[in-house]
Design goal:
Two copies of one chain form a homodimer. The first copy, chain A, is mainly α. Chain A is 62% helix and 4% strand. In chain A, β2 and β3 form a beta hairpin. In chain A, α1 crosses α3 and α5 runs antiparallel to α8. Chains A and B meet through α3, β2, α4 and α7 of A and α3, β2, α4 and α7 of B. The first copy, chain A, binds a DNA duplex through α3.
Chain lengths: 244, 244
DNA sequence: CTTTCAACAATAATCGATTATGTGTCAAGC
DNA sequence: GCTTGACACATAATCGATTATTGTTGAAAG
């Protein structure tokens, strides 16, 4: 099993983005399931909007109902699964409107968190940014090797979270983490490659450099544009596939 | 069992603030437990930070473990309960920093949602506001009758949610609902009465009137002040009780 | 007197079986 | 032909018992 980026923080239980924690076979079955299900949904393996049959899932994953429900419950917190009493679980649907809301809220919240970080972040935080940036830029996405995509996604997620991790606001970080999760799902499913007119690596570098230089307006604007472009890009891909 | 305000929306499953739905004994045990536990936590009956012993809780509520976990899982989504593998559940702690973050985020998100609502809200939405306002202002808090407090809290919550319900952004509403929940907990636990120099009813009326008049700047500012004052007020009470 | 480690007690996690609920189908009545 | 209701089937929810993990205590070693 490959190493993963931070996942579903229970509450204020944000995992340190830097830690090289290994997911041993130590965790609870419910936890492991949460990971696997999340990956299955974000990767598109489980189709958006589809019903999750407990009995089938139980057999697929070779587990009992209790941990299965446990795992699903966590994905509900993440907004990746929906639930109704006596009607069971279903993979959260996707839509243009949803994507647009995610993008808009990211522009608001992530930028706000970035400004706060630049205001009160410490040197430790700055260093973490540069490290995340370096790792991200050294990793290529190779569409022919899915594991590299997954790896890149993890590093990308970590970069964005690190960027705003200096703000000292657990709840805000939690919200941003959720939005990032939801957004990544759209990218994983719809984005084979970045549109040619963008140099994403460059964009990340500019954001990072502006941030550690505490150039508030510059960094904020760069981040906002970065998020906005990604949103536009994804929206086009959705339109192509006829998603409303 | 008294009627309740909207509770823990699973995902985009926001309950209509207006509906006079009765919670029959129809729901799932897990659902009912979620309600009861939420009330127990928000009311302070379950002490902040305290551990939740599954076996004891199971006996207290006369249920089996499965629905108990189910209910607790939902409160995790709400940020009212924290969880760690193999270590169980605990009531989310409270702190000055947490309260301040909640207040700050409410100022950002709720005001943002209000502006969006004023931008695109329809007549139906306006009408709902006036109705919620009326119901709220017609209800008094009587410290000697706890059920009136609970009733007032429900209506207050509904008013604030209705105010921003015109924005057409389910995720944003979800976040605001969470923050409101967390905030209400502080009020329920620490606020015996409003500080004398405030006329909260008046504040609500001003916000509502400004909103339906689409006086964007006025309404936004009034709402922000309202939230801010409540935050300050609560902070003082926390300080009095020595909460750090 | 402190540290280590092993047994025990307390607690959480999981399982398989059982019960309750929702859903689809077919026949009788209109 | 269309609607209604009862039955049967599929599925979700719950239970009680079992297993795994954690934490605690106390005796032995240093």
């Amino acid at each position: 099993m490959s190493s993963k980026a931070t996942g579903s923080p229970q509450t204020a239980n944000e995992e340190t983005p830097s830690a090289a924690f290994s997911d041993d076979g130590k965790n609870t079955i419910g936890s492991q399931l949460a990971w696997r299900l999340r990956e299955a949904i974000i990767s598109g393996e489980l189709e958006a909007g589809s019903k999750i049959n407990l009995d089938k899932a139980r057999r697929t994953f070779n587990v009992s109902l209790s941990p299965l429900r446990e795992g699903l419950a966590r994905l509900i917190s993440d907004g990746l699964v929906e639930f109704q009493d006596n009607r069971g679980y279903r993979v959260a649907p996707i839509s243009l409107a949803n994507l647009e809301e995610i993008t808009m809220l990211r522009e608001e919240l992530e930028v706000f968190a970035l400004r706060e970080s630049m205001r009160i972040g410490d040197v430790e935080w700055e260093s973490n940014i540069m490290r995340s940036l370096h790792r991200l830029n050294r990793t290529d996405r190779d569409a022919s090797r899915p594991e590299t995509l997954e790896q890149w996604e993890a590093l990308h997620r970590e970069f964005h979270l690190t960027l705003i991790s200096g703000c000292g606001k657990p709840l805000l970080l939690h919200f941003c983490g959720l939005l990032l999760n939801l957004n990544d799902r759209y990218r994983r499913v719809f984005l084979v490659r970045t549109s040619g007119d963008r140099n994403v690596g460059q964009e990340h570098s500019e954001i990072a450099q502006g941030t550690v230089a505490r150039d508030v307006e510059y960094a904020s604007e760069k981040l906002r544009q970065h998020i906005h472009r990604t949103g536009t890009n994804l929206r086009n891909h959705l339109a192509t596939k006829g998603i409303v």
